[in-house]
Request: fold
Amino acid sequence: MTSSKVLQYRHIKDPSREILRYIDDRRKGISRSLKTRWKKFNRQCMGGIEPNVIYTFAGISGSGKSAFANSLETDLFDLNKKDNFVVLSFNFEMLSSKQIGRKLSYRLKKTTRELYSSESNDTRATLSDEDYEKIVQHTEEIKQYPIYYVDSPGTVDEIRNTINKFHEEIAKDKWLIVILDHTLLTRGRET
Reply:
């Protein structure tokens, strides 16, 4: 069955106006990129994360893509405190609570094994009260970030609908950053 849908086309004058507005906004500091901790990434990507751009990070299994995304979403808030944006993060491989554990691990310079007291075979926790208080303090800080998680995989249509609803309800007047981790776990269309 062939589709009769026609894709939209536009005359060159429209994108010409858009690029002039973009260049002018950039030079005036109206439009800026969100900085990341990686100087080379920022240099290669127009100063950081740009609005209306799709970034794809790919690599073999176990190469650190999820850790990169996890660091990126927190770093954006740490390094761009004056910017008005929100993150919607689809985590199909790891529950959001475990993502928070990774963030705490990085901030406290402790392994997740140390955080979860899994190094010992006895029933006593190996994490000190002092370390636990630091964990609580850092958790209080990061839970203030406008980051929202979707833990359950969905179809492409469900993901699109979730993004649209989230944009209408929560990110209406904000810059929305969507992170989609582990697209292989996206479900097929339901018929």
Notes: Strands lie at 85-91, 147-150, 175-181.
